[in-house]
Amino acid sequence: MTMVHEHHASHIAAALSVADMMAVLYADILHIDPQNPELPERDRFILSKGHAGIAVYAALAEMGFFPRSELSKYYTDGSVYSGHVSHKEVPGVEFSTGSLGHGASVAAGMALAAKRAVSPYRVYVIVGDGECDEGTIWEMALFARQQKLDNLTVLVDHNGMQALGWCKDIADLQDLPTKWRAFGWHVIDVKDGNDHSQLRMALHESVSGMPTCIIANTIKGKGVSFMENKLLWHYRDPQGEDYERAMRELGAARHAK
């Protein structure tokens, strides 16, 4: 919230939508070493919906990949911490994303590389439900099924919204779990994609010979009442009373835990 506020950036609601997934992945799931970001057997994570990149930078700083003070450079001229997440000189970021659909395809390629190298690492990728309008998502889905990439997990951030409106009003994909199953994937439908215990349970589940898709039913802008399910906060940055109220609500939620 502070990064977006201080530098008049965008996509705070998209970042809040995936923040819980990021927390569970980095704290509980991913085999990574902040002191050795290039560890060959590390798990790979890609945020395909790269506009929510602040969630990645925050998670990496919390895990110790770089000092938290570095986050003050976000979205400033010449900074490596760009608006859409970039791997250039940022330890822990596997791939620059922002052009929707591409991150998932790269993740499938990484999973295939692990299979061919007989390497133990797994690959995780978060895509948006609006991003699933992209044809490359479904080409990847066919490819991953054909190659039996059971070391690949796709998490769909299913908040029901995209940049310019509700997904159902723009290109209605209807029943996403059924669609992914039809493409030959093992599908887990997580009712509350902002609940850590539900996410943790889903991320520990896999089936031999099949890639896994977790449909995480989330809330865009989760955690800040006036941002939740409001399209305005896909782009708007919180200033003045909006920022102060958001920080109060997030602080109260943190202390409640």
From TrEMBL:
It comes from the Bacteria. Residues 3-235 form the Transketolase N-terminal domain. Its cofactor is thiamine diphosphate. InterPro entries: THDP-binding, Transketolase_N. Keywords: Thiamine pyrophosphate. Gene3D superfamilies: 3.40.50.970. Belongs to the transketolase family. This is Transketolase subunit A. It comes from Harryflintia acetispora.
